[in-house]
Amino acid sequence: MSELTHLTMAAALEGLKAKKFSSRELTDAYLAAMEKHRGLNAYITETPDKARSMAEAADQRRAKGEANGLMDGLPIGIKDLFCTEGVLTTAGSHILDGFKPTYESTVTANLWRHGAVMLGKLNMDEFAMGSSNETSYHGPATNPWKRRGSAQGGSDVKLVPGGSSGGSAAAVAARLAMAATGTDTGGSIRQPCAFTGTTGIKPTYGRCSRWGIVAFASSLDQAGPMARSVEDCAIMLNAMAGHDPKDSTSVDVAVPDFRKALTGDIRGLKVGIPKEYRLDGLSPEIAKLWDDGVAWLKAAGAEIKEINLPHTKYALPTYYIIAPAEASSNLARYDGVRFGLRVPGKTLDEMYELTRAAGFGKEVKRRVMIGTYVLSAGYYDAYYLKAQRLRALIARDFTEAFKDVDVILTPSTPSAAFGVDENSDDPIAMYLNDVFTVTVNLAGLPGISVPAGLDSQGLPLGLQLIGRAFDEETLFRVGQVVEKSANFTAVPAGY
Ligand code: GLN
């Protein structure tokens, strides 16, 4: 274990300022850890040369007194969904083999402008479709956490890190990156954070630019930070966010200094507890964690209120119509002509067919077929239009709830991390992972997951806070109270 890789970003920034170590030393410590733990398969592409030269440039800026960026000299990983100029970007798919973008996504460009150092590109479910990282063409990333010796197959069972930002979560938890970018269409930041004892926020839709991020479901996708503390997420979101004229859905509102929101004072704040999230058969451990969260916030002076989100039960079916519908349209561009893989055929049509048949994995094909079906002339009204109406009702539930409360507290996931292959041939079981998170994307709201405890098998569990649109500040403030109360200091063994 290297001391340097155990620092939070906030602490590392202090260390860099005080010249206790250089960015090059910090970066070398991470590059060594990445090499040592390649078995986790967290990275698809490592960029050590780029990392060293970016770190040296950061050290030079600091020597000249010009290190003004929010993340100057901090080494991070990038989910392989973000286009990075000249660096392989696969979205976890075979169909993007060899794709080296000639442009940089706005979010990553913002991070580099703030002085962050790129360690490499992180593993993920193919096109961000999945909850376990098992749909990646590059093989699954593994969770650095293991079950305690005696429980369910014990410590030999490889666990998933969640998905789709599984490589990001595994890397942050295993100290193979200080922090990482993620994207969240239905839970892909929050669920893997909950599975790995890390912290991540899906900001309000429109807070971060989607320009240069490989599209999955454009009306739901949003980028966000994944890190090892609430404060680190606040710092990194400030570096990522902002209006971008290149993305017409990016919203032109001021980005507050999120660190200023971390006052610890939540007296008088109203916290909603949605009845509908207490699902039949909810695991007693998750129910207890949720009760603990309520008790912590009450003890800190918040007022707890039961609320109703009556259309919650329609959220998963609604999501699994809208997301595949948008995906089927977005993925039409992979035709063997413009990007990556091409399998030659005798005719143009045959080339399309062979390329898409070989290039897409099973889950992606399933979604393209579902999406095409629900958008087809005979079924559009019955499925897609109905789903759009339900989406409006789900959003309205939140608007009503936020008349009475300032923030909503729920569990992040219905279970702890599960074993590789345990759910992979049952798509419905896999889709249930998102039951607490998809509502937030459908309504375009911000949601944060904070590690809140360990279950009886020694695996991390997370609590989710949901806020009003563009009120990430309240999520950070309350999230930090949860973080302090939970006092989650556990680290996966061996990291
Ligand atoms: N697990 C969900 C899905 O498979 C969400 C994925 C995501 O947020 N990108 O669609």
From TrEMBL:
<dbReference type="InterPro" id="IPR020556">
    <property type="entry name" value="Amidase_CS"/>
</dbReference>
<dbReference type="Pfam" id="PF01425">
    <property type="entry name" value="Amidase"/>
</dbReference>
<comment type="function">
    <text>Allows the formation of correctly charged Gln-tRNA(Gln) through the transamidation of misacylated Glu-tRNA(Gln) in organisms which lack glutaminyl-tRNA synthetase. The reaction takes place in the presence of glutamine and ATP through an activated gamma-phospho-Glu-tRNA(Gln).</text>
</comment>
<feature type="active site" description="Acyl-ester intermediate">
    <location>
        <position position="188"/>
    </location>
</feature>
<comment type="similarity">
    <text>Belongs to the amidase family. GatA subfamily.</text>
</comment>
<protein>
    <recommendedName>
        <fullName>Glutamyl-tRNA(Gln) amidotransferase subunit A</fullName>
        <ecNumber>6.3.5.7</ecNumber>
    </recommendedName>
</protein>
<dbReference type="InterPro" id="IPR023631">
    <property type="entry name" value="Amidase_dom"/>
</dbReference>
<keyword id="KW-0648">Protein biosynthesis</keyword>
<keyword id="KW-0547">Nucleotide-binding</keyword>
<feature type="active site" description="Charge relay system">
    <location>
        <position position="79"/>
    </location>
</feature>
<dbReference type="InterPro" id="IPR004412">
    <property type="entry name" value="GatA"/>
</dbReference>
<feature type="domain" description="Amidase">
    <location>
        <begin position="25"/>
        <end position="475"/>
    </location>
</feature>
<feature type="active site" description="Charge relay system">
    <location>
        <position position="164"/>
    </location>
</feature>
<dbReference type="InterPro" id="IPR000120">
    <property type="entry name" value="Amidase"/>
</dbReference>
<comment type="subunit">
    <text>Heterotrimer of A, B and C subunits.</text>
</comment>
<keyword id="KW-0436">Ligase</keyword>
<keyword id="KW-0067">ATP-binding</keyword>
<dbReference type="InterPro" id="IPR036928">
    <property type="entry name" value="AS_sf"/>
</dbReference>
